[in-house]
Protein: Septum formation family protein
Amino acid sequence: MESDPDWEQPGPEPAPPRAAGRSRAATRSRAAARSHLPAHKMRWGLAAVAVGAVVAAVVTLSISGFRSSHGLETHDPGGGTTGARVDSAFGTAAAGDCLNWTDPKTLDLSKVNCAAKHLFEVTADINLSDYPGREFGPGTRFPDSLRFAELRDEHCVTAAQAYLGGRLDPRGRFVVGMINPGEPAWTGGDRDIRCGLQLISATGNATQQTVGRVRDSDQSRTFDPGTCIGINQSLPTNEPVDCAKPHAYEVMSAVDLGTQFNGAPPASSDQDKYMQQQCARVAASYLGGSDALIKKTLTIFWDSIDPRSWLVGSHRLNCLVGKGAAEGFSAITGAAKGSILIDGQAPVAPPSSGRSTPSPLPGAAPARVPG
Structure:
């Protein structure tokens, strides 16, 4: 049995992040030296995600639920039985229930209070045998992962929208997922699926827990200050890691644009202006000095909020600090507040001209990633 649960995330292509450098001259130098990733190929704070590669990986994995043909086994895996799930967490899960598991190998589902940490919030329980046709009738073959992906898109996206009253953020941190009954239960006549919402990494792993119901949450794609996001082949993984391990960037703060803008979605240029001020200010205090960013040769980044996200209530952005590389990000080891290594080497501060350094300005996005 494969160990990692995977889901596919439908939705629009990424939006551009914003970056800031040491000065306008440095910004122009970077802009001239690199080819830019088009706006529609970028997403929030990830800045250099190779969308084509990620999409290709998703298609290859055919992620729709658990890759194992056994789906979620809620019985004792050593018991050798696939009996009815009337008393199981899966069999009794209904819209509004929250599920968790501790071991992706045994898939030990349990219901938990949604105020506690959990991995999956159920939006609908659907019996496929209620639909006309012979595809899900008695004795029919267990669907493959591609078919389950289609069923998720057909049923679970609509279920999520209904569950949230039409307020699902298409670029938010929660994605639509589905749990199938597993092949043994399917063979025994179980045709129930559970639609839900969950967090997911850029690599498709559903290992990030959340607290509270999605309907009561700001769906903005943000992390807590001090969080470091992992790196793999120069690209962010969207999963928190210990800052002592190599990572793509570190979160400095979370900014609520709702305190600055009211009503209609603010223009990207207005968001940029406000985020530039907020991120430049927080960088000085977060890193321990106005010149710390320069000495550590780091760059600050931020994103913009899509109008669709704004209208469903997502108003928060992160101020991020990292270092762009030729194709993505450099790997940083150590918390930005202390001593760091960049690609294994201590940063070398540029020579000082003796003149004051202007506040960081919006600059070029990191280099285009082939794919």
